[in-house]
Amino acid sequence: MRKINVLVVDDSAFMRKVITDLINLDDELNVIDTARNGEEAVKKIKDLSPDIVTMDVEMPIMDGITALKIIMKQSPLPVVMLSSLTKEGADATLNALELGAVDFITKPKNIFKMNNDDIKKQLIEKIKMASKVNVNLNNINNFNDVKRISSFNVVSRENSQIKKIVAIGTSTGGPRALQHVIPYLPKNIAASILIVQHMPAGFTKSLADRLNNLSQINVKEAEDNEILLPGYAYIAPGGYHLKIIKTANKHKIKLTKDTPVSGHRPSVDVMMNSLAQLKLNNLIGVIMTGMGSDGAEGMKNIKLQNGYTIAQDEETCVVYGMPKSAIKLGCIDEVVPIQDIAATITKIVGV
């Protein structure tokens, strides 16, 4: 079987050695070469034609973001970014995902912990998954394809009541996919939107701020004990499960540090199941691009409460795992491309 050839790009000789050793432990992977900065990486991609690149963000001579722009323009191929756990690292990583990077891995604060089992597992899984992504398909998505909300004659008055609660779950490819959905929801939508995006702590705040700057509705990182409001989207903070509880006819956010579910905290299933357990009859579940099956059980439980369920289609997913798992359970009302999800939500919420 032909191995997946990987180019490792990092300015630290220690990190290049550790990452190379971790990758080469897997029988399906092979580090074809390493590069010390973005400039070297661009040249070696031309010379060696690797299948995939792991790219550090901060490097001398040419940083990872600049190199990524050149790679996506000249010779697009899957790139997995390696990022620091800082606000600057989170912002740069989100920028990289917008530019076409498939996924990212966070470096531990102590670089000597880089070779622990959890990071090794993440690195191998994400390289294998990313190597299968069609980056050319990923790059043709653009905001001009998104159906405009104005075509649905949304009323202009302010809504003070929540007609629907929309629960959205996503993972790999999600930050970019959410930019095709949230900014296209109308300001006065009579719904609260809850979002679980698999991301570490700190990154979800940067994601919320970026989406808020693009959107008509208010987008924020969810806080414990917040009461749900219409026209707001709440993103579960990394490291916390987001649940909804009901008190005095209000719906309130509860953040917990309960055990990760299927390796995830926040977990899509935890959020959606908490809504279904309240036996609400005004739920919309949306499952989007992502690896694995988180959210499939939650979508089924929302459907069992007579909620409406939407899955992103295979053609516009970076990774079709999560929608495919939900569809297999027979609980999806509508499968739509990413550019139609905002319009579908708006139509169901009603005006």
TrEMBL record:
Compartment(s): Cytoplasm
GO terms of molecular function: phosphorelay response regulator activity; protein-glutamate methylesterase activity; protein-glutamine glutaminase activity
Domain Response regulatory: 5-122
Principal subcellular localization: cytoplasm
Leading EC class: hydrolase
Post-translational modification: Phosphorylated by CheA. Phosphorylation of the N-terminal regulatory domain activates the methylesterase activity.
GO biological process, one term: chemotaxis
UniProt keywords, alphabetically: Chemotaxis, Cytoplasm, Hydrolase, Phosphoprotein
UniProt superkingdom: Bacteria
Catalytic residues (UniProt): S171, H198, D294
Modified-residue entries (4-aspartylphosphate), positions: D56
Family matches, as Pfam families: CheB_methylest (PF01339), Response_reg (PF00072)
Family matches, as InterPro entries: CheB-like, CheB_C, CheY-like_superfamily, Sig_transdc_resp-reg_Me-estase, Sig_transdc_resp-reg_receiver
Reactions catalysed according to its record: L-glutaminyl-[protein] + H2O = L-glutamyl-[protein] + NH4(+); [protein]-L-glutamate 5-O-methyl ester + H2O = L-glutamyl-[protein] + methanol + H(+)
Stretches assigned to the CheB-type methylesterase domain: 163-351
Presence of keyword Transferase: no
Gene Ontology cellular-component annotations: cytoplasm
Known EC number: 3.1.1.61, 3.5.1.44
Its job: Involved in chemotaxis. Part of a chemotaxis signal transduction system that modulates chemotaxis in response to various stimuli. Catalyzes the demethylation of specific methylglutamate residues introduced into the chemoreceptors (methyl-accepting chemotaxis proteins or MCP) by CheR. Also mediates the irreversible deamidation of specific glutamine residues to glutamic acid.
Written domain comment of the UniProt record: Contains a C-terminal catalytic domain, and an N-terminal region which modulates catalytic activity.
HAMAP family, per database record: CheB_chemtxs
NCBIfam families, alphabetized: PRK00742.1, PRK12555.1
Record family assignment: Belongs to the CheB family.
PANTHER family: PROTEIN-GLUTAMATE METHYLESTERASE/PROTEIN-GLUTAMINE GLUTAMINASE, PROTEIN-GLUTAMATE METHYLESTERASE_PROTEIN-GLUTAMINE GLUTAMINASE 1
Protein name, entry field: Protein-glutamate methylesterase/protein-glutamine glutaminase
